[in-house]
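Dissemination and training. As part of the outreach component of the grant, students in the summer workshop were shown how a complex can be specified as a set of sequence lines and then modelled as a single object. The example used during the hands-on session is reproduced here so that future cohorts can follow it. Participants entered these lines:
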Amino acid sequence: MKRVYVNEQWCLGCHLCEYNCAFAQTGEKDMARALKGKTIYPNIHVEESESVCFAVNCRHCADAQCVKNCIAGALSKKDGVVEIDQSKCVGCYTCVLSCPYGCIAPNETGVMQKCQLCLSTAEGTPRCVAGCPNQAIVFEEREEV
Amino acid sequence: MTEFKYIIIGNSHAGVGTVEGIRQADRTGSIAVISDEPHDCYGRPLISYLLEGKTTREKINYRPADFYVKNQVTKFFGRRAEAVDAKAKIVTLDDGRTLRYEKLMIATGSSPFVPPMRGLDGVPKYYTFMKLDDALALEKALSPEKRVLIVGAGLIGLKCAEGIARRVRHITVIDLAERILSSILDEDGAKLVQKHIEEQNISFILGQSADHFEGNAAVLQNGARVEFDILVLAVGVRPNLALFEQIGAACGKGVRVDASGRTSVPDVFAAGDCVERLDISCGASRILAILPDAYGGGEAAGVCMAGGQSRFDKAIPMNAIGFFGLHVLTAGSYRGKVYEKVDDTGYKKLFYEDNRLKGFIIIGDAARAGIYTALIREQTPLDTVDFPALCRQPALIAFGAAYRKEKLGGVR
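and obtained this result:
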């Protein structure tokens, strides 16, 4: 199963992944037009200190706590990918309480959103990875955690 | 007599977890699910959202419509399991039919507790608030001129209040406890949430119970009279243990199970609100009565019923609950030392002892709170992380490079 993995020694802390993620969600063609002046709700977040920085997004866990604990049955796992049916989500935050990586959060309407690896977009591959200038995040097969 | 390899009594989250657990280890063994409710499994905690209009009868379903067919489940819905003979391995339904099992899951949950209250039999009608049919019955009574009295300021009573607040004239909530949500909040946190709820045309009378009822009025211990058009009783719940008592399964407050969901009776498993299990945040056996425990306990038991290996052994209390846009996230046990940050942006208390995080209360800014939950569940030694940094903000940067290499880099 291909996943987004982090090579933190290469991360520049440029936050481009966050913009590319938010852009991918809009379905627009021009990033500036899609995002300019707007609060963005990316599914990937860069954490940084003076000595280290890295990007974090959903791990699509084998034993996904968010899926097991969702009170609405809105989260499910299909072919190794943790998906959300936003029409079923009531915004109760049980998934926020459950995710060990802090990788699920509400959008501006209070409904939860999360990384689905851009599988449903035209490109079908994670836009955060495609736009990373330094291969600090990669989409590849590794041993599943 | 019909025979099934697996019989599951109960079709809520523990029952569905059991089906999914069984199917991880056994793709074909016959499964029967018995439920006294006539519905496919729905999100129980969603009934308040249904009344609020945030979900619908269709979307409230916990699993896709083809769930039972895909998992080859024979449904006995709208039927009660009246008796279990654990020696002969036979379940008797309320219509007299008998079903034989090899492995049995009893996930009978809990029921609203209605304490004996003088004059209650003179109240024309009262409501409880646990099941879909309870919510639908209550919904029929709602209208803009109605005054509602809810007895019980716990999770159920207050979610009920939120669900119907826009559809009635006024709501009064009374509770014998001095604070609201006493099972999950400390005094200061409860005050904050109470103030927020009071802004929504909901009043509280705390430290008081109904001494008796006179028709459509409750007379409190202090003599005050609260008139109502609709009465909701949300005092508490009691586990449904009758079947366990029939078969002599060891019970404390709930039926006792191990991490595989086994009761003391051979081939009989249990999960959900009727069980008590080890809460690792306090080291005691407790009824947790939360969905993660129901689903996770059911799933692990299902795997074991089908001969596989699975353990549900990191159970802790955890609740995410919101009222009118204010979110309250809590987990674990409130013991030991306290890190506290209370200001305009939110309310956060972290409880820790013996080098472990034991519990937390977060009101307001809930972002990434699951990082704290994982510290409790995994019993992570706090001297292996940057705990002062974590106290300020939950983030993976506090965990060190080796942890990140494994969790984010997929390298063991």
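The mean pLDDT of chain B is 97. Students were then asked to discuss how this feature might be tested experimentally.
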